[in-house]
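go over both lines:
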Amino acid sequence: MKTQVLKIQLNNDANSLSTYVLIGNDKHEFTFSRKFNTIANKQLQVINHDKSFGDIFKYNHHIINEVINIVRKFFQGENPTLPQYVGDFGTPEDALKLQKPFYKLP
């Protein structure tokens, strides 16, 4: 099923936002938040998502990556063009077929 990010809007907190995603004909709302960590004198932005986002897309990592990239841009003040296609939602069986084999190192 085609999946796209429809809309992103800030919540009351500047470090939290709602993201609306369409999977086929089903609309979902997910909450993303950010926090900042400092490592080696560099400030890093860490993006977190709610549990339901991870549960729904656990077999669709390509979509997780695309959505988080769009969310990151939004948090950084960019205005990504929406709606934006982020990939095809696959079943667990579809995802397993796409996995690369794991080879144990000697």
Q: What stands out?
A: The chain has a mean pLDDT of 91.
